[in-house]
Amino acid sequence: MATTIKVAYAWGLRRNEVRMLELTDFGTNPHAAEFGGYGVLYVRHGKAMRGSPPKRRSVLTVPHTGWAVDCLRQWIEEVRPPGTGEEHASLWPTERSGRVSADSLTLEFTLLRTGLGLADGIDFHSLRRSYVTHLIEDGYDALFVQQQVGHEHSSTTALYTGVSSDYRTRTLRAAMTKMAAEATGTNQRKTP
Questions:
Q1: What is the pTM of this model?
Q2: Does 191 reside within a domain?
Q3: Rounded CA gap, 154 and 145, in Å?
């Protein structure tokens, strides 16, 4: 379960997206060779609009969560039960080689949260909201973050963002410094 949670957070996945992952859903990103075969995640079972097939998207592995690549690699190479054939392609197979259910993910997450003494309001989807918030706080472009999580509208991504007071203070300080420099003309290039 620990690796499942790490993967959900590291790529900002919904519960169903993480449970539907297969071994073949990861690939290389030529612009991020350091992640090897885990530079991009191809989400094939994204949230669908009513009456539409699941939305697909590509989620790039970002340095902010690159640590999850080692966890995932270890899971696949050392822990995950081996198997052959289409029925064994699931990244998270059950004992009977089926796919882990959404309810079992929720139950396991709830047990973990309770065991750690975390607030009842924290749920599996909190991992996704944290992913969005942390990318924004780390300076990633809002449109990039929106595309990473597959939101159609930026307003949805904004709802997920709950930045810390430290981030808000740093942002305010940077804006005030910029305005002061512009007002005093100290940021203008001097010509010889």
A1: 0.78
A2: no
A3: 9
In this structure, are strands 40-46 and 55-60 parallel, antiparallel, or unpaired?
Answer: antiparallel
Q: Is residue 190 part of a domain?
A: no
Closest CA to 10 of 41, 32, 37: 41
Quote the CA–CA distance of 109 and 6 in Å, as a whole number: 12
Query: pLDDT truncated to tens, each residue of the chain (192 aa)?
Result: 889 999 999 999 999 999 999 999 999 999 999 999 999 999 998 887 788 888 899 999 999 888 999 999 999 988 887 765 555 688 988 877 678 899 999 999 999 999 999 899 999 998 988 899 889 888 898 899 999 998 887 877 777 776 566 766 666 677 777 777 777 876 655 554
Residue 159 CB coordination number (10 Å): 12
Q: Is 175 a member of any domain?
A: yes
Token output for 51: 């009456």
